[in-house]
Amino acid sequence: MHQLAIFASGNGTNAEALFNYFKNHAQVRVAALLSNNPDAFALQRANNHGIETRVFDKKQFRESDDVLIWLRDRGVTHLVLAGFLWLVPPRLIQAFPDRIINIHPALLPKFGGKGMFGMHVHEAVKKSGEDTTGITIHLVNERYDEGQILFQAACPVLTTDTAHEIAGRIHTLEQAHYPHVVEKWILG
Ligand code: GAR
Questions:
Q1: From residue 2, how far is each of 27, 34, 140, 183 by CA, in Å?
Q2: Ligand 1 pocket residue status of 8, Cβ below 6 Å
Q3: pLDDT tens-digit map of 39-79
Q4: Which atom of ligand 1 is closest in space to residue 16's alpha carbon?
Q5: pLDDT of residue 143
Q6: How many Å lie between the centroid of ligand 1 and the Cα of residue 186?
Q7: CB neighbours of 180 closer than 8 A, spacing ≥ 6?
Q8: CA angle at residue 157 from 153 to 161, to 5 degrees?
Q9: Which helix H or strand E contains 19, and what residues bound it?
Q10: Is the CA virtual torsion 122, 125, 130, 135 positive or negative?
């Protein structure tokens, strides 16, 4: 059985889509939901699904093997970032080579990098006047949003769109694709 640990910092709609998709899956199981944010609604969503949770601080994440040991104790094989806002430290990247995936709410390499997350991305897209945006699912390396791209899907940006309307369209795309791309990445 492949065992996923999902990392989320906020609402957790992508985490929820993954919980639902892999419930009763024969080969893939969501083993845990981890967060840097004790108030993340994603934690509540995990509790509702009976999925084990863990909150960590910066020191535990970046300066110790605390999180790594916790993941190993649970037999975690793959890490799935779903709205997780901290840079993944080298110790975790080395422990899970090509086994960490992220979803970004724009068509990378556009609108990526430090500080480009959530609504900041959609506001930048709106401001740029681009008529298209989308989602990117990519492997994670030691730099923000620069790992190998596995999948992209686009959607229109209407001139009348607010950043919130763009976000809504992006969330629909994310939830439709992320679970399938994660499954294909793991099972080939
Ligand atoms: C998602 O749109 C995800 O792509 C984005 O945060 C949102 C989280 O929503 N991630 C980033 O911006 C990472 N740079 P959710 O908590 O409802 O899944």
A1: 6, 17, 18, 10
A2: yes
A3: 999 999 999 999 999 999 999 999 999 999 999 999 999 99
A4: 18
A5: 85
A6: 21
A7: 21
A8: 135
A9: helix 13-22
A10: negative
Positions in the chain whose pLDDT score sits under 70: none
What is the reported pLDDT for 144?
86
Is this structure's pTM higher than 0.85? yes
- Whole-angstrom CA distances from 101 to 16, 114, 138, 140, 184 are 16, 17, 6, 6, 12
- Measured in Å, residue 44 CA sits from the centre of ligand 1 at 17
pLDDT, residue 89, reads: 96
Note if the bond before 109 is cis, omega within 30 degrees: yes
Q: Evaluate: CB of 179 within 6 angstroms of ligand 1.
A: no
> Left if phi > 0, otherwise alpha if psi is -120 to 50, otherwise beta: which for 115?
left
Ligand 1 in contact with 133 (CB < 6 A)?
no
Instruction: Report yes or no: 82 and 178 within 8 Å, Cβ to Cβ.
Output: yes
Decide: 118 in ligand 1 pocket, CB within 6 A. Answer: yes
